[in-house]
Amino acid sequence: MPETLAGTGILIRLGLRRDRWLLPVWILGFAVVAYSTALAGADLYPDVGSRIEAANALNATASMVAMFGRIYDPASLGALSLIKYTAFMTAILAVLMVILIIRHTRADEESGRLELLGGGRLGRDAALAAALGIGFGASLGVGLLSAAALAAGGLPAAGSLAFGLGWAATGMAFSAVAGVAAQLTASARAATGLSVGVIAVTYGLRAVGDLAEPGPSVLSWLSPIGWNQQIRAFAGDRWWVLALPVALCVLLIPAAFALRARRDLGAGLRDERPGPAVGSLTGVWALAVRLQYRVWLAWAVAFIVFGVVVGSLVSNVEQMLSSPNAQDLIKLIGGAAALRDAFLAAEISIMGLLAAAYGVAAVNHLRSEESAGHTEALLGTAATRPRWASSHYAFALAGVAVLMVLAGVSIGVGAAAALQDPELVGRSTVASLAQVPAAWVLASVALAVFGWLPRLAGAVWGVLLAFVALGEFGVLWNAPGWLMDLSPFRHSPLLPVDGDAVPALVALTAVAAGLAALGYLGWRRRDLAA
Q: DSSP code of 47?
């Protein structure tokens, strides 16, 4: 082994130990989603006629094609059932791989952990090699276990393997993208932003390329997410397309190591711009806004775009889900009498989960600031512990609330334009606001964990994932009622919202306040953690 890679094996073992809870949750989560989708698809589309009708309706809806892509074999149960996961879930997997790679490279440099480890016999490329090894292994784990889950769910084995390998190859490709981004920037936040920006651009290229007639156009072939769709699992299984993400890895990995050789530890090839000579921040509240608002703006833009697209789909719901089983299931999930209301209620619930994810990320910023040593410096000034924590916690709560307002308005505008019913704007906004207390509960869980067990801050994502799984598949799994009731979103009123919803919203707000008080109590009592 070259001297520059000395210690790679040790770093891989160390990384796997640090991620001993995170990686199994991610891998099993994808496999469970795949298995549940395979089972649900057979119930929703029991015959070829219902599949062809639904697939043709989806392919004829431009907004659906932009979001999820085309179905290339309308008669295929696997192609129809997994259409949402071929592009959308692949983008989520790519984001997770970016987080994983940045966590083990740039973030460890930023925290000084790699400098400390470098005191031993550790090659300069060992950290990057170990991170890529963990990322590739996790991607393969997701792909192979999901392929087995799809086959166990009754889908053809060859298509299941093609679909799973598509996920794996795309995860590996974006691991390599993150490896390059980690060399270009001087902070973990900038590296993550650059990598996620690449994911967004590639998703957009795929969307525009798939909309071309006859699709896909060359733009789809410029996107790794588009490549995953062109594998066409369950619709021809074009194995040769898997060579494209592998070729991208072959190009990017040597480039990442070459860039690593041209910079110092802790520095990036692209230096950060120095700030003004005289600062203008007036306190911890202004600092929290300065640190958080850019990320919030990105979420806000995504909520507006996603909301308008989702709202505009409501006029096609009856065509896409025309089988009796599908309509019955949608009504069960939404709990409303009208299928269109049930569809909007289900989509608003998903937006509520996404807003909760933002809230958790915003609160976990407290842990990042503490790990980086910034909190220690701030608390040496007149800032108090409760005031500093409140500045980020309040931003998270307000951010969640405004995001849901944007979601409600944008969904309502999209639906109103599609159905020529302006009343939907107000109804969707009220229904979206009803999701806010449940999202606040998740943000407060993050604050409670930060207050007492800061090293387990990442475990809150597992809690959110569990709530997502219960909400999406609890009914299909016949999960006991008490288990499903653990999710705060189970108690959020759905569209249409009436006065009977007030007690549930008050109770959820009280739970959020109680968890926040618990978090503040722990934060005041514990020492700063490295």
A: S
